[in-house]
Amino acid sequence: VQLQASGGGLVQAGGSLRLSCAASGSIFSIERMGWYRQPPGKERQLVARIRSDGTTTYADSVQGRFAIYRDNAKNTIYLEMNTLKPEDTAVYYCRAERVRYTSGSFVATGDRWGQGTQVTVSS
Fold first, then answer.
1. What is the spatial distance between Cα 48 and Cα 37, in angstroms, rounded to a whole number?
2. Are 94 and 77 in contact (CB under 8 A)?
3. What is the pLDDT of residue 99?
4. How do beta strands 117-122 and 9-12 pair?
5. What is the CA radius of gyration of the chain?
6. Please, which residues have CB within 8 angstroms of residue 47's CB and are 6 or more apart in sequence?
7. How far apart are CA 120 and CA 107, in angstroms?
8. Which of 37, 66, 81, 106 has its CA 20 to 30 A from that of 21?
9. What whole-number distance in Å separates Cα of residue 65 and Cα of residue 80?
10. Band (103; pLDDT cuts 50, 70, 90)
11. For all residues of the chain together, what is the average pLDDT?
12. Residue 26: its pLDDT value, please?
């Protein structure tokens, strides 16, 4: 199981970006998918998360500006980021939790991180 993230870039404050993260492999289901970010010199932190039933969770700092969507059929999530601020600058990572997938003749469960994608917001 692999996660492929895309969509980062450089944007001016007040602008918008959309991140995508697609999970691939012999996947039966994914309980939760989400986005985390790691600003320079800081720890990785939750940005937004969405469950398979559509329930969402947002960090207070992005509530009302960011929106997370999920396409269960494609095992893909999207993060719409609006009204971006310089403090949103970070490497953004996608994560899949409780992924059920085939491993040989077995069904396994695990978590996965995607590669990071840089988001830079200039003032």
1. 10
2. yes
3. 95
4. parallel
5. 15
6. 34, 35, 36, 37, 58, 59, 62, 66, 79, 92
7. 39
8. 106
9. 8
10. confident
11. 96
12. 92
- Tokens (6 digits) for 23: 């999970």
| 64 CB burial (10 A radius; 0-12, 13-18, 19+) | exposed
In this predicted structure, what is the pLDDT of residue 22?
Answer: 97
DSSP, res 52:
T
Can you name the residues that pair with 119 across neighbouring β-strands?
9, 90
Q: What is the C-alpha to C-alpha distance for residues 67 and 57, in angstroms, rounded to an integer?
A: 10
Mean pLDDT of 84-103: 96
The percent helix, strand, coil of the chain (3-state, each to 5) is 5, 65, 30
Q: Which are the contacts of 98, defined by CB distance < 8 A and separation ≥ 6?
A: 30, 31, 32, 109, 111
Which pLDDT belongs to residue 112?
96
Q: Are 38 and 118 in contact (CB under 8 A)?
A: no
Identify the three-state secondary structure at position 15.
coil
Residue type for position 29: S
What tens digit of pLDDT does each residue of 16-27 get?
Answer: 999 999 999 999
